[in-house]
Design brief:
The protein has 204 residues and is an alpha+beta fold. Helices cover 45% and strands 30% of the residues. Strands 1-2-8-7-6-5 form a 6-stranded mixed beta sheet. The mean pLDDT is 85.
């Protein structure tokens, strides 16, 4: 499921959703609780659809690993009316916090009919990786430290900052991969030295 992920309730823009479907692009878009969706032949708010969910309609799944372990939430997936899209399906995805069921997030989803809930949840969970990357870029390369008066100036700053952050990320990954190999070489050298000493003693 090659999926476009958009947060900040961009899913409230019906024109964006329609355009993505016309391009046959699978997506997970955050929406507000007062957004309208088609359930059967009836248009309802997201809030109303969620109220009608049975207690057994929720499943606990991880949407990815966080700083304190797996990010576990309760999830529910509701099929929505899908017309003129063969082999494709619209859904309403609902995320509910464990221990605080009043805290919810809502997404409209479009993708292949047989896409499993686990895969959709995984896509929805990529928002944290994106947010963490932005936070790191703010602290390391000053992503948010700009004073510009034009769109072009802002665009140049953001582009160069993200490029610098990508460079640092690649360098860190390369450095961390070199450390274990250096340790392995040091251990191998130590073993070889020990074997050489043993052979020298046995030959006396």
């Amino acid at each position: 499921m090659s999926t476009k992920l958009r947060q900040l309730q961009y899913g409230n823009d019906r024109r964006l959703r329609t355009w993505l479907e016309e391009q046959d692009l699978s997506h997970v878009l955050a929406v507000a609780s007062n957004a309208y969706v088609w359930l059967g032949m009836k248009q309802q708010t997201v809030r109303a659809v969620v109220k009608g969910l049975p207690s057994c309609g929720w499943e606990v799944l991880s949407c990815g690993a966080g700083a304190k372990g797996e990010r576990l939430y309760e999830w529910a997936l509701v099929p929505l009316l899908t017309v003129g899209r063969p082999g494709r399906q619209r859904w309403l995805l609902v995320r509910r916090k464990l221990g605080a069921p009043q805290e919810m997030a809502y997404y409209v989803v479009f993708g292949p009919k047989r896409t499993p809930l686990e895969q959709i949840v995984k896509v929805a969970g990529t928002r944290w990786a994106i947010e963490e990357a932005f936070q790191a870029a703010k602290g390391e390369v000053g992503l948010d430290q700009y004073e510009v008066r034009s769109w072009h100036g802002w665009y140049r700053h953001i582009t160069l900052a993200l490029l610098a952050h990508a460079f640092l990320t690649v360098m860190r990954a390369a450095a961390s991969s070199e450390v274990p190999s250096c340790r392995r070489r040091a251990r191998a050298k130590k073993r070889a030295h020990g074997n050489a000493c043993g052979l020298a003693l046995s030959s006396r």
